[in-house]
Amino acid sequence: MSNPPDIVTGETEAPGLGIPGAAPPGTPGDDARRRTHDLWLTGTESPGEMGRFTSEGAQEMLAEEAPPVLAAQMGSLVGDDYAVAVVSGTGDTQIINMGPQHPATHGVLRLHLELEGETIRRAKPIIGYLHTGMEKTAEALTYVQGATNVTRMDYMSPFFNELCFSLAVERLLGIEAPPRAQAIRVLMTELNRVASHLLWIATQGLDVGALSMMLYGWRERELLLAFFEKVTGLRMNHDYIRPGGVAADLPDGWEDDVAAILDEVPRGLADYVALLDANPIFKQRTVGVGIITPEECRAFGVTGPILRAAGVAWDTRRAFPYSGIERYEFEIPVGGAGDTFDRYRVRLEEMRQSLRIVEQAAAAMPRGDYRSDDLKVTPPPRARLDQSMEALIHHFKLFTEGFKVPPGETYQAVESPRGELGMYLVSRGGAKPWRLHVRGPSFAHVQALPVMLADSLVADTVATVASADPVLGDVDR
Amino acid sequence: MSPASFDQGTPAGRVLAGLAERFPAVEWAAPLGDPVARVAREGLVAFAAAARDAGLDTFIDLCAVDYLARPAGRFEVVVHLLSMEPPLRLRILVALAGDDPSLPSLTGVFPGANFYEREAYDLFGVRFDGHPDLTRLLLPDEWEGHPLRKDHPVGAVPVQFKALEPQ
């Protein structure tokens, strides 16, 4: 390209450019540009134009456009109302765009950062790049299939999604999972919390330059994923916790695997403490960075480790217990400063507390059924299908039509590794949910990022975003 | 459920009874034991502000539901608030007519309502008057329609694959 686009900052009042990228009507470039725009939107290329336009855009035409228009089309000029208003304002600040393809945004998060020198004055998260309409999909799936869908939302804590969905359905049905299923649910979700926090500590370390931390975090997490695979058949997206109980009993020898995890992971945690706790580089990058106050947390719906790091001892497991979690002993770790370093300390202690719960759950695992004996939601055992026609029909009906749930609505919350994961489930008496709304913790945390980022240095963005631990599958759904 | 049936012996019951006393027009219910307040849209902001000041100061959730043909109104906006001390959840329901799905924005009471209202606008076409930036959140700006409405079928938008060069 002979004429590289100027990146427009400050004064954008070039002739005919009140809005960057939009030429006034009647200028030569206008028709062509609008055609390009239409083509991008509709994808209706006519054969005659195929030579000039590709589905990636009008390649040849880009070079013919006037530079500012070209810059807008190339994406180097931020074509957003917010950005435009600011850029044409004082001229002292500049907008930089971070993401969605940025390795430190933990997915496809995009941030507009308004900088004054090195200081972030305002930030604006832009989301939706991973939106796949999962709430709409949930309305087309039966309750039997529903857990398969929700497990893919927050893909770093799939057991929690399944648990939340199952508890909501069970609440509307008026049934309760048997004691062994409840203990298995606690065991698996608390192990999942450790796995999720291990991934967080690995990436937080990586994002502030501690590459070895990432390798260690992955090392310990592998133990847990191997155990998940042994129990559920999959390393993620398990569809293991289902309405009525769990999909299968724990495999033979699970006690040994859990014992190995309880032996290995605390050793790893001690390593992390030795590596990070008094590490001057790590502390310089995290202490006093990304602060949020308890009042701001409440106003923005920020929960979980971020809220606890701000000094509020709030845990859904303690206040609204589920799945028999009130029978286990655990502490709620609390920080004080509400900064990134406190979040690290809180999450580290949460892993120890989760392992404590796992130890208790494994030691006192009840015997009995791993799923409800309510034949309405539980398929007959495989062996019965060979003997009984009725059992075969029952099995067939359950997996084709599903079971019906009485009309009503409920909000069920669980304490996921990131915070309060809630599901609002509306049933109108059918075999599929009328509406399933998921209140993802990451959604609220991404919304609160501007609060955490305001007036901090641009170099701290990565540390702050990592400490909020957003999972974009949960944000965009 | 009448306001008199709130358990005055518990702190949570006293919070709800206090709200019920201040807002006599609000209808209360307790499906499955969850306290639910049905509010007219004109009274939503005042009620939410009073609930916040009464201790329900954590903004948890806002979403919309499309009930299609329903006598009380096609759409329902559902707000969840949380009080940490005492532990209490409150659900606020606002019914909206299908031909005028609009209500005042809660962003002045809870700044956290911002993204949730944008999401409800994006997916259901519910308008929040007074919202500072009511634009699409999850879908592209050029998207037409509001796909979580019940009259928007699954698969309504054809999937576009890359156009092939004619041979």
Description:
Chain A is mainly alpha-helical and 477 residues long. Chain A has helices at residues 28-42, 59-64, 67-74, 81-87, 134-139, 143-150, 158-173, 179-207, 211-232, 254-277, 280-286, 294-300, 305-309, 316-319, 340-363, 382-385, 389-400, 441-447, 449-453, 461-468, 472-476; strands at residues 94-98, 110-116, 119-126, 241-242, 245-246, 408-416, 419-427, 435-439. Chain A has 21 helices and eight strands. Chain A has a three-stranded antiparallel beta sheet with strand order 1-2-3. A three-stranded antiparallel beta sheet of chain A has the order 6-7-8. Chain A starts with 27 loop residues before the first helix and ends with a helix. Chain B is α/β, with parallel strands linked by helices and 167 residues long. Chain B has a single domain, classed as 2-Layer Sandwich (Beta Polymerase, domain 2), CATH 3.30.460.80. In chain B, strand 4 (75-83) and strand 5 form a beta hairpin. The termini of chain B are far apart. Classes of the chains: A mainly alpha (477), B alpha/beta (167). Chains A and B meet through helix 5, helix 12, strand 6, strand 7 and strand 8 of A and strand 3 and helix 3 of B.
Q: What is the topology?
A:
The complex is a heterodimer of chains A (477) and B (167).
Chain A: H1 28-42, H2 59-64, H3 67-74, H4 81-87, E1 94-98, E2 110-116, E3 119-126, H5 134-139, H6 143-150, H7 158-173, H8 179-207, H9 211-232, E4 241-242, E5 245-246, H10 254-277, H11 280-286, H12 294-300, H13 305-309, H14 316-319, H15 340-363, H16 382-385, H17 389-400, E6 408-416, E7 419-427, E8 435-439, H18 441-447, H19 449-453, H20 461-468, H21 472-476
Antiparallel strand pairs in A: 1-2, 2-3, 4-5, 6-7, 7-8
Helix pairs in contact in A: 6-7, 7-8, 8-9, 8-15, 8-20, 9-10, 10-15
Chain B: H1 11-22, E1 27-29, E2 36-38, H2 44-53, E3 58-66, E4 75-83, E5 88-96, E6 102-104, H3 113-124, E7 127-129
Parallel strand pairs in B: 2-5, 6-7
Antiparallel strand pairs in B: 1-2, 3-4, 4-5
